Amino acid sequence: MTQLVVRKLLIDLTTPFPARWNGGDAFRSAFFSALSMSFPVGEQYFMDSVRAGLKALPEPERQRLAVEVQGFVGQEATHRRIHALFNGHLQALGFINTLEPRAAKRMQQNARLDVRMHVAATAATEHITAMFADWMFRHPEALEGCEPRLQTLWMWHAAEEAEHCSTAFDMYLALGGSHEWRVRMLRYITTMFALDITRQTIRNLWHDRSLFKWSTWTSAARLLFSKDGMIRGNRAMWRAYLAPDFHPRQQDTSASEQWLRDNSQRYALVGQTV
Ligand SMILES: [Fe+2]
Ligand SMILES: [Fe+2]
């Protein structure tokens, strides 16, 4: 069982930021803003899925995972709240979040699926976020020039994603979910996530009047498609999930643990699920 604590960020999130908040770089700002726009709706879904999964578990499995699920829900609820504040600033700048209602509608259409499908979708998304989190620790230049308070927000979220990366996965196993559906769900979630983020990034760039600028797309190429970029650099880790004996704890989370130790003055512990 993983011990998960809930942390309250001690940073100012009331002061607005500019549209190109990520170091003045149009693409990096639009892309990370799109990610942030996907979080509140996604994180609500993860919380609902693992809560439903816990209810469906027989004893003693339910008891074994209950405390960890409580910590997972506490962390995701905090992410959801903080990113809603972040997204509020984007909305005030005129950015329109079309990803959220589209994803919410899709989730509603799939609501009647077996609880294992929802937990599998959550485990797959958690793998993708943990993969990006690990990448962020290896590539601080992705947030280069960004205000320290916003860097803290992103790195804190990344650290907690690495920390709770196995909760939904362990629940899926405890529910008796198959390897075949676990892998199918990763492919489905990856496709939908890529489409959603691409559409929202383009919409954000359009609003920022930077969609047709050469510098926008050179930045995109550097961030996503360079040799160790966010997409090319994560292929191996994405594929690792396909192995029958994969487990999220096989991933190295030492960088995120180090970040949490080095930045303990930037958050307060509000709950310890020990
Ligand atoms: Fe999160
Ligand atoms: Fe998460």
Kindly summarize this structure in a few lines.
With 274 residues, the protein is mainly α. Helix content is 65%, strand content 4%. The chain has one domain.
Quote the distance from N terminus to C terminus: 10 Å
> Strand-residue fraction?
under 5%
- Rounded mean pLDDT is 96
Into how many domains do the coordinates divide? 1
- Are there runs of 5+ residues with pLDDT below 50, and where? none
Largest sheet: 2 strands, antiparallel
Task: Using the alpha-carbon principal axes, give the shape.
Answer: globular
Helix content: 55-70%
Q: Supply the helix-strand structural class.
A: mainly alpha
Side by side, the strands of the main sheet go: 1-2
Round the Cα radius of gyration to an integer and report it: 18 Å
Q: Summarize the helix and strand pattern as letters.
A: EHHHHHHHHHHE
Mind explaining what this structure looks like?
- This protein is mostly helical.
- The chain has one domain (5-272).
- 65% of the residues lie in helices and 4% in strands.
- The protein has helices spanning 26-56, 61-92, 99-109, 115-138, 148-163, 167-174, 179-207, 214-225, 235-240, 254-262, and strands spanning 5-9, 267-272.
- The model has no long low-confidence stretch (mean pLDDT 96).
- Bound molecules: fe (ii) ion (FE2) (2 copies).
- Residues 46, 76, 126, 129, 161, 164 line the site of one fe (ii) ion.
